[in-house]
Amino acid sequence: MSSLLKHTSEEGAHLLIRNELTSDMACFCFDVLVRHLKNLAPPDDSHLPKHSIPLFVTWHSNDKRLRGCIGTFKPIEFPKDLTYYSLARYLINLSSAVNDRRFNPITYSEISNLLCSVSVLVSFESCAAYDDWVIGTHGIQIYFYTKKHEYSATFLPDVIKEQGWDHEKTIHSLVRKSGYRGLIDRRLLVSLKIVRYNSFKATASYQDYTLSRFYTSTRVC
User: Fold this and answer.
1) Angle CA(128)–CA(132)–CA(134) in degrees, nearest 5?
2) For the AMMECR1 domain, which residue ranges apply (predicted)?
């Protein structure tokens, strides 16, 4: 990521966190999903802030079972005379509810039992060691290479805390999440590039969605 884009991304993310990261964002995601499942046109996104930022959209069932999580670490860099994609466009294109291949797509009958979270990622820093990050505060991303493949994976801060993992278990779990199935030995561990980051989250339940301005034209029940 260029220094200019990184600065723009951080500036936009912090502005969003200060002023605009509310449950309204997650309610908008509900509206995207409902409209998709009902074959309706996408919702109007003109009211949402326009920043190019790293973010993740996560879906859980009410019993806290993960149903989908997809995001981006790389804000799209446009020519200087063009406006960055809106946050809304990211949310629509990520489609974590229907395109996360680890899970069956969310169905219409599940909607009333869902929670949606929008996580904005900021303050990316390289770690000096495998444990150079704080459990419950930082999310981490790993990168590493073998002769044939490039691997990467991430856990948001909440995931690590909820699982009760220590630093070593988190790193081992990330290596497996990346798709790597070989031996996890010291040589591999010292080759990892580890990046820590902070995450700010807004969450909405289906009930929140039914009370939002988005619900009026897409009644599910």
Assistant:
1) 155
2) 11-213
On whether both 108 and 182 belong to a single domain, the answer is no
Strand order in the sheet with 66-72: 66-72, 55-61, 114-126, 193-205, 139-145, 150-155
- If asked whether residues 44 and 104 sit together in one domain, one would say yes
Kindly report, residue by residue over 70-113, the tens digit of the pLDDT.
777 875 432 222 222 334 454 545 555 555 567 677 888 989 99
Tell me, what CATH number does 171's domain have?
A: 3.30.1490.150
What total of structural domains would you count in the chain?
A: 2
Q: Which domain holds residue 33?
A: 1-121+200-219
Say whether both 96 and 153 belong to one domain: no
Per residue in 124-175, pLDDT (tens digit) is 999 999 999 999 999 999 999 998 899 999 999 999 998 999 999 999 999 9
Task: With beta carbons less than 8 A apart as the criterion, state whether 103 and 68 touch.
Answer: yes
User: Look-up: residue for tokens 């493949």?
Assistant: 149
Residues 115, 61: contact at Cβ < 8 Å?
yes
Same-domain status, 110 and 11: yes
Which two structure tokens, joined as six digits, stand for 213? 């301005």
